[in-house]
Amino acid sequence: MSGCVQFLRFGWLEVVSCLFPICLFAGLAVSKYVDLPIDRYDALLAYCLGLTLLFWVVGLETWREVAVIFAFHLVGLGLELFKVQVGSWQYPGDAVTKFAGVPLFAGFMYAAVGSYICQAWRRFDLRVSSYRPVPTTVLAVLIYANFFSHHWIVDLRIPIALALVVVLRRTWVFFSVGSHRYRMPLAVSFGLIGFFLWIAENFGTFLDAWNYPDQVDVWRLVHPAKFGAWALLVSMSFVLVASVKSLEGRLYHRGTPATVSTPEATNVEPDDLAANITAAEIAPQHGDANQSSR
């Protein structure tokens, strides 16, 4: 029975962490089936900007998190501009805010991923141990570059993914559900998030937010290979968020426990850090959550 309760709690925390993506998909659905006084993509851009402002005003996201999310918006928009030009996918319909075939609202689909990570970080009281920022960042940059370069040279996503698994082999993410503390390998979390993003992409294409070439005449399931691409893209979003979280307790929120720890920063072995992080780096609202760790 307790396992079912924990699963329901976990599901609820996931839902509320996905508040921005849920609102985004609601906007996609409404804009598809309801006649609007302006072009659909223009309305979606105004809607997403309003959502971002609302999240900041009501305190769902801090200005640092909004800045990180905006950075991922720009990263995604750059990728969209290239992919549309080479014919990987297209955006049907016209809009004033459409540049080189890409509506400016498109970056918010990537920003939604960043919003989810920021929300989940807080709601699950995430802690990351043995994080290696330099090699992880280098691989994230290579992942982004490969999305462009594989159109001219061999696709390196599999070697890069394997290298990422090696770099993150000792990196764990700790999270709380109720009074219990859990952990999983960070690389596994990337895979799980990537899978659900692939499902979300199917809904997005079904709502005609964009179309792959084989979906122009009739909707088809997005190729399962895109699941791997999303898992890799999640690592890029994580690096952006972790770069800010790693400064927590030093440049801001001074005196609070660090939520991203590296072996170099703590001068302990990774295994010792993994053990300590569950006992010493719990946020106050969870009290003795580690006493119930499983």
Folded structure, characterized:
It is built from eleven helices and five strands. By secondary structure, the chain is mostly helical. It has one domain (3-213, 224-263). Helix 4 (63-85) packs antiparallel against helix 5. 34% of the residues are buried. It comes from Kribbella pittospori.
Layout: helices, strands, pairs:
Layout: H1 2-17, H2 19-33, H3 40-57, H4 63-85, E1 98-99, E2 102-103, H5 107-123, E3 127-129, H6 133-149, H7 157-167, E4 172-177, E5 180-185, H8 186-206, H9 225-245, H10 263-266, H11 270-280
Antiparallel strand pairs: 1-2, 3-4, 4-5
What is this structure, in a nutshell?
The protein has 294 residues and is mainly alpha-helical. It has one domain (3-213, 224-263). It has helices at residues 2-17, 19-33, 40-57, 63-85, 107-123, 133-149, 157-167, 186-206, 225-245, 263-266, 270-280; strands at 98-99, 102-103, 127-129, 172-177, 180-185.
